[in-house]
Amino acid sequence: MLPRCRLTRLCRLGLRPMSAAAAPEPAPSVFRTSVSDPREHSRSDLGRLYTVDREDHRRLFQVTGLRKSLSAQARTFCELALMVRQPALNVLDSLRASDPSRPSLRFLLYGPYGGGKSTTVAHVLHWAAASGWLLVHFPEADRWGLRFREVTASASDPQAVDHPVDAALWLAHFRAQNAARLAELDLRTGETYTWSRREATEAGSPLTDLVELGVTRGKHASQCVLALLAELKAHASAGRCRLLMAVEKVNAFWCDSTARREDGSTVKFGDMTVIRAAEQLLRPDWSGGAVLTTIAPVRGGPEGSHLPRHQLGADGWRALEPFVPIRVDDMSRAETYTMIDYFLERRWLQAPAAATERGKQELFFRSGGNPGKLAEICSMY
Amino acid sequence: MDCRYHSAPDWDGSGSQPPPVTMLRSLRCLCRLQPTIGHVRTMSQYPPTFREPTLPPEQTDEAREQLTFSPIKAAPSDLTSSAFDHPAVKKFTNIIMKGGDKNLAQILMAKTFERIKRTQIQRLHATRDAASEGTPDQDEEPVCDPLQVFLKALENSKPRLQLVPIIRGGITYQGRVVRLKQELHRQCEANRAYAHYTYG
């Protein structure tokens, strides 16, 4: 049995230490693929679930990064299993074939709510990490303006807005995802950053210094993010690393936030330091990487169509165009049945009717193949 | 047998039939003002010839043919052919509903069942862990089906009934009276000195 301190830490991370009896090694079956390395996923794995290695799961999604429902599911099932679907394979094929000397490709995932956009991003992130890319992952872009913990006026620009707590947490997430790779690459800052009269990060310091400073000093965290992403952009363009930026709900960048200044004026997302940091990488003026974005209706955003042009608005469209649009649709009947079989195997679906053909037909009919809706319906049975 | 009782649904899904007709008739004088006895309705806006509405998966061909020539009661709005529906869950959802907000009541039921499942699955894993490490838990594996847990909870919550003699008009009837479980336990506790007398 593990020492108690490590036990509670692992439980907090949602990774309960399990013996073989509790989470047995899944036998190869129709709905699982034994290929757990995303670099080897191909057409033959389509429609089947692969299990993310526990160490990778911990590294990539320890702090944040998965949707709450998927995170809870991984905790209950004692594993994180993702379905290999066409949209993810399309992105992976493009990334494998992309030329690092050319301007970075920008992908935009769109589709119905609960259709699997976030899960596709998780799959691509796993591939990028396995391939040695650095990851810049913003799991929920709308949080910065709608559900932030704290905002303060920026020291450098009075009109700009900093996030002392959220930026520090994000840097912790960045560190968890990239610590090992950053240590291998040993990238250095290109210029000196002065934080105050006594504090400065000299040119030639390791990038990890920037990260550590931001994690420990919330006051400078947002500026650290700005500096860090500028440095990473320069290193990627110079060919010293490959960089994948993933921004979910990117359409929030061109909305109004709920934050207000002292004079009552509305703070736009574009006024926020961290958002400006991310926007550096949204521009097509760098190479050696790629940008993966998703759009989803956000509070305060345009009502109506869920399609890219409407959700991005004129400003967002102008900023992101040209991009590769990829539709992430609801699951097919076969994929839905695969998911149901997986739920049955994990003892999540308890009702005897769920194992029958009639029950599966009903679950497919009621969910319409939508993964989010299927999970919602199956939670009760 | 009177059609009314034949078609009355057993709402708790236990499969137990309503009490025999003779006992009900004798108790009607006691329960004159109450339209229900136990779980059987004795007053209905429908004449006894009206049948309960059913949906195709539950109907046999003969039943469907008979229904073609019988009047049928109006279907409730929550009648579905879902393979997952349970009458007790529907009834309980209606009971917890306030202000007609059925949507919220259903959401609460769904979240409750989900929490039951997660808790039980965690316990299941813990039990299996203990078993594999050679320290088996004294209990068997926990039930993970939230419906079974819910029905058992309902069963545990039901009042215990006892027959006591009641004299009315010179005739002694065996009336059903609610006895609280606590009172029974209190009586057992008071008489615990005599427990060993059972061994003779």
TrEMBL record, chain B:
Pfam families reported in the protein's UniProt record: Ribosomal_S7
Record keyword Ribonucleoprotein present: yes
Keywords: Ribonucleoprotein, Ribosomal protein
Domain of life assignment: Eukaryota
Originating organism: Amphibalanus amphitrite (Striped barnacle)
Protein name: 28S ribosomal protein S7, mitochondrial
UniProt lineage: Eukaryota, Metazoa, Ecdysozoa, Arthropoda, Crustacea
Family: Belongs to the universal ribosomal protein uS7 family.
GO cellular component terms, semicolon-separated: ribonucleoprotein complex; ribosome
Record keyword Ribosomal protein present: yes
Residues covered by the Small ribosomal subunit protein uS7 domain: 81-174
